[in-house]
Amino acid sequence: MNSQSLFFLPILGAALACLDRYVGVSLVLTGSFSILFLSQNPAAERLKKSFLFAVLGILPLALWFFRNFLSAQTVVDRTPGFHFPEAYQFQAGWETLARWILSEPVPMKIAGIATLFVLIFTLWVSFVIFKRKEEKTVLSSPGLLFPKVLLIFIFCYAATFLGYVLFLSVNVLPVSRHLSGIFVAGLLYGLFIFYEYWKRPLPKLLRQTLVLFAVLFCLSYLTRGIKWSMDLYRDGLQFSSRYWKLSETIQAAKNLPKDRLLYTNSPEGIYFQIGRPAYLVPKKYDRSAVRKSETTEIRKDYSEKLSEMAKILKETDGRLIYFDLESKEMGRWFLPGPGELAEKLSLVIEEEFSDGKIYRLP
Length: 362
Known about the structure:
Layout: H1 3-20, H2 25-38, H3 43-72, H4 87-101, H5 108-130, H6 135-139, H7 145-167, H8 180-198, H9 204-235, H10 242-245, H11 248-254, E1 262-264, H12 267-274, E2 279-280, H13 302-316, E3 319-323, H14 326-329, H15 338-345, E4 348-352, E5 356-360
Parallel strand pairs: 1-2, 1-3
Antiparallel strand pairs: 3-5, 4-5
């Protein structure tokens, strides 16, 4: 494989990641900055290749944005606006980091102290490994390029996520699902750095302390892995969970005539369980709100969409299927509740179950 292929294959991978998730932009930034700061080529060539990597990596996403604008007069269904993260978001981020180090039932305070210690110790070890006096003997090794790239990726991922919070979303929390890229890269970086540090002559007590922490870290993940596996075996996950498999409302929905159109607060749940399409009830609030105040502003088309829903239900003798768990557990704060829909559309309860209700027009 020639050098040109080695250059364009990472661009292709980063571009595809951008099309899958917007946070894939962090891969484009990582590749571009890695070339700019880590390459041994002359400055002009580094600038050229870094720019080329960034442009080609972001091009497919830019074309997709252009297509969205032509077809829907919007790029990402959101109006950008500045929103500084609130205290609860910083707290959620810190708790996520702490639980990566020590999981429950370890108290949060202890996990937080351990996290602070790990971060400080990692920075110190990194300084020891990368300090200047070893540049000629250690940093010239191609093997140390990998942790440098990981560091760049962590910063780029964090910056991409922060930009998303600052300008595109008001409610997103820095939980494990959103920060999984940082977790994987951070774990690889830590393993590599501590391996390099372990090869140095260290005091016996320090080695014993590192071994003890490594054992506790592994036990923490072993226990949470066992618990997660047992919970998954017992309850299932998302739409394969016991809630959906044993749902009385789903069982009743199976018996509804096929020619009736359905409205619901969970089209995915109905489709995955019985293979039947359904409309999502009209959104009362803007789910893509950028500013906190926008989350309490009723959408301008809400009344129009309710009238359209009432018309369809009447023409098709349709039904509204409202699951009790869905809006609370799946974060669908932007949907109206069943009581409001029943009142505004003059719906009556046809069947009521432990997990939901089926409504119809009188």
